[in-house]
Amino acid sequence: MRFETSTIKDIAKALGLSTSTVSRALRDRYEISEETKKLVLAYAEKVNYRANPIARSLKERRSYSIGIIVSEIANNFFSQVINGIESIAYDRGYHVIISQTHESYKQEKLNVEHLASRSIDGLLIALSSETQDINYLRELYAKGLPIVFFDRVPEDFATHKVIANNFKGAFDATEHLILSGKRTVAHLTNSENLSITRERLKGYKAALAKYHIEFKPELVKYCQHCGMHSEELEQAVKELLPYKPDGIFISSDRLTTGCIMALKKTNPEIAHKIAIAGFTNSNLVELFSPSLTSVKQPAFEMGQVATELLISMIEAKRPVTEFETKILDTELVRMQKILGNRFL
Amino acid sequence: MRFETSTIKDIAKALGLSTSTVSRALRDRYEISEETKKLVLAYAEKVNYRANPIARSLKERRSYSIGIIVSEIANNFFSQVINGIESIAYDRGYHVIISQTHESYKQEKLNVEHLASRSIDGLLIALSSETQDINYLRELYAKGLPIVFFDRVPEDFATHKVIANNFKGAFDATEHLILSGKRTVAHLTNSENLSITRERLKGYKAALAKYHIEFKPELVKYCQHCGMHSEELEQAVKELLPYKPDGIFISSDRLTTGCIMALKKTNPEIAHKIAIAGFTNSNLVELFSPSLTSVKQPAFEMGQVATELLISMIEAKRPVTEFETKILDTELVRMQKILGNRFL
DNA sequence: AAAAACTGTGCAAACGTTCCCAAAAACGTT
DNA sequence: AACGTTTTTGGGAACGTTTGCACAGTTTTT
Question: GO molecular function terms here (chains A, B) (predicted)?
Answer without folding.
Answer: DNA-binding transcription factor activity; transcription cis-regulatory region binding
